[in-house]
From TrEMBL:
Record-level Gene Ontology MF annotations: cobalt ion binding; cobalt ion transmembrane transporter activity; magnesium ion binding; magnesium ion transmembrane transporter activity
GO CC annotations, alphabetized: plasma membrane
Protein's membrane topology: Multi-pass membrane protein
Keywords assigned: Cell membrane, Membrane, Transmembrane, Transmembrane helix, Transport
Residues that span the membrane, as ranges: 267-285, 297-317
Localization annotation: Cell membrane
Domain of life: Bacteria
Protein name: Magnesium transporter
PANTHER family per record: CORA FAMILY METAL ION TRANSPORTER (EUROFUNG)
SUPFAM superfamilies assigned to the protein according to its UniProt record, in alphabetical order: CorA soluble domain-like (SSF143865), Magnesium transport protein CorA, transmembrane region (SSF144083)
Length: 323
């Protein structure tokens, strides 16, 4: 079901009116119209695309999924694709919600690919900034972009908290290495996905602020500058977290290697200590005469040799921290 809104002279006059009335409202030069559609087909967009003069390539991109974040310019309108994101804090998996928008002189048409894109959050931003409604379509675009960029920023912040928890796990006494490797892999995947949708936003927001597009007026310019600042911060944060996850993984492998070396060193040291009585008793177990053969002093001599040599090896290894 489509959702609609009508602003006239910067005042919200109507909402959820029939799509067929959009053309009537656009005949008024003082009107600004918003139309939202969820999972439409090209046939669903046919009537409105003819009314607004939407380019067929833009309509095709709006219907098909997995477009890259971008801003395309056409003669009568601009077309943009953005992604809102959300992070599952339990698993560390990042989910994407794709949305497209046609930006004309007096209308904004949003096309959501699924219900996961929270359009109610966008509406709340519009309602909380009613003093900016006189800026027309630019005001609507700002609310949309503000929601999308805030979702990026929230995801980066949540990932930062997840990575801090991962850091604590690295130096814990009891570590579930399988769980840690799984979480590390999921976080790296999420950062790769987030980077893929965050990095193009710099160019996208910067292009929206260009004067020749006539979308952002002087009133809205500081607000778009604030959105652009959030984009830069999210981008830089994402890059730093990506390096941090790689460092954590390298640290984990180094600690595992050090623990393995310590264990091998202890096992080898104990094997050397145990080898002394084995060698001595093996020597005295020969079926040939030797000094002390079948004599009591021979038994005590071998016992003394075992104790002295084994004790000396133990003290030597202990002093070198091998045991």
């Amino acid at each position: 079901m489509a959702r609609t809104r009508l602003y006239r002279h910067g005042v919200l006059e109507a909402e959820n009116f029939p799509v067929a009335d959009v053309s009537d409202h656009l005949s008024d030069p003082n009107a600004t119209v918003w139309l939202d559609m969820c999972s439409p087909t090209e046939e669903d967009l046919a009537s409105i695309s003819e009314e607004l003069g939407l380019h067929e390539l833009a309509v095709e991109d709006a219907v098909h999924e997995h477009q890259r974040p971008k801003l395309d310019r056409y003669d009568s309108h601009a077309f943009l694709t953005v992604y809102a994101v959300r992070l599952d804090k339990e698993s560390g998996v990042l989910a994407l919600s794709e949305a497209a928008a046609f930006v004309t002189a007096r209308a904004l048409v949003t096309v959501r690919k699924d219900e996961q894109f929270d359009m109610d959050a966008v509406l709340s931003r519009w309602d909380s900034s009613s003093d900016l409604t006189k800026s027309g379509v630019g005001f609507l675009v700002h609310g949309l972009m503000d929601y999308v960029v805030d979702s990026h920023f929230d995801a980066v912040q949540a990932l930062d908290e997840q990575i801090e928890a991962l850091e604590d796990m690295v130096f814990a006494d009891q570590v579930d290495h399988a769980d840690m490797q799984r979480r590390s892999l999921y976080l790296r995947k999420s950062l790769v996905v987030l980077r893929r949708v965050v990095l193009p936003m710099r160019e996208l927001v910067n292009a929206l602020m260009r004067r020749d597009l006539h979308i952002v007026d002087d009133t809205l310019m500081p607000y778009f500058q604030d959105v652009y600042d959030h984009v830069l911060r999210a981008t830089e944060w994402t890059e730093s977290l990506r390096d941090l996850v790689a460092t954590i993984r390298e640290t984990q492998l180094s600690l595992q290697a050090n623990r393995l070396n310590t264990i091998m060193k202890k096992v080898t040291s104990w094997a050397a200590v145990i080898a002394v009585p084995t060698a001595i008793t093996g020597f005295y177990g020969q079926n040939v005469p030797y000094p002390g053969f079948q004599q009591a002093w021979g038994f005590w001599l071998s016992t003394l040799a075992i104790l002295v040599i084994s004790g000396s090896l133990y003290l030597l290894f202990k002093r070198r921290d091998w045991l």
